[in-house]
Amino acid sequence: MPSNSIKEFWELQDLITDISDFNGSEPTKEDWEKILSIASEVLKPMGKYRSEYAHQLTEMFKNGEDVAEVANKLGISKSTFHNWVIDHPEFKKAYEFGKTASEAWWTRLGRAGAAGKVTIQPASWIFNMRNKFQWTDKHVHDVVFKEVVLVPPAKPVKPTANES
Fold first, then answer.
1. pLDDT 10s per residue in the chain (164 long)?
2. Distance between terminal CA atoms of the chain?
3. Within a domain: residue 12?
4. Which residue range forms the structural domain that includes residue 16?
5. Which secondary-structure segment (H or E) carries 120?
6. I want to staple 65 with a disulfide (CB 3.0 to 4.6 A). Which of 29, 44, 69, 76 is the partner?
7. Going along 64-158, which residue ranges are E strands?
8. Taking a C-beta distance cutoff of 8 angstroms, is the pair 46, 75 a contact?
9. Minimal CA–CA distance to 1: which of 61, 80, 77?
10. Are residues 116 and 65 in the same domain?
């Protein structure tokens, strides 16, 4: 949840608690209007796309984060994140750069671990690379053959007396 909404969230929680403590009396129309007003303020920042998110996205992935972590930082669900990728071309482009930044971070970590500069768990690292970035031990190469037309060579031409 974005930090600017935390105060409003707790106000909403307190108001709901107060209403539930009416000892059987019904909440008034004003009580419900206040709840709805506070709730709409709390929920408004969540899930609303803003163009500055695209500018922040690559930075959010730079330490190897994945979509769940970045969506959490933005205060949205993973499905909202993926909807933004579909609906906002600048967000999609930033996400592609972000994925590359994340994979680069993990690649540097693996290289540092292989060189003995840091301690890593190789099996965990490999498992992570396979799941996050679809790494595989098996390489599949698609080969496309095009039709080849063989042209017979031209008949040899005998040199003339001047050419010899």
1. 444 455 666 666 666 666 655 556 677 778 777 777 776 665 555 568 888 899 898 899 999 999 999 999 898 999 999 999 999 999 999 999 999 999 999 999 999 998 999 998 888 888 878 877 777 777 677 777 777 777 777 777 777 777 65
2. 90
3. yes
4. 1-46
5. none
6. 69
7. none
8. yes
9. 77
10. yes
Helices 6-20/29-43 angle, 10° precision: 150
Phi, psi of 22 (to 5 degrees): -75, 5
Residues 42 and 55 in one domain: no
Residue 38 contacts residue 30 (beta carbons within 8 Å): no
Residues in Cβ contact with 2 at an 8 Å cutoff, skipping those fewer than 6 apart:
45, 46, 75
Number of domains in the chain: 2
CATH of the domain at 117: 1.10.10
pTM confidence score: 0.55
**Integer Cα distance of 44 and 48 in angstroms:** 7
Q: DSSP 3-state assignment of 25?
A: coil
Question: Is position 162 within any domain?
Answer: no
Q: 129 and 106 in contact (C-beta within 8 Å)?
A: yes
Of 52, 57, 15, 22, the residue nearest 36 (C-alpha): 15
61 and 38 part of one domain: no
- Residue 73: inside a domain, yes or no? yes
- The pair of three-digit structure tokens given for residue 83, joined into one six-digit string: 């909807």
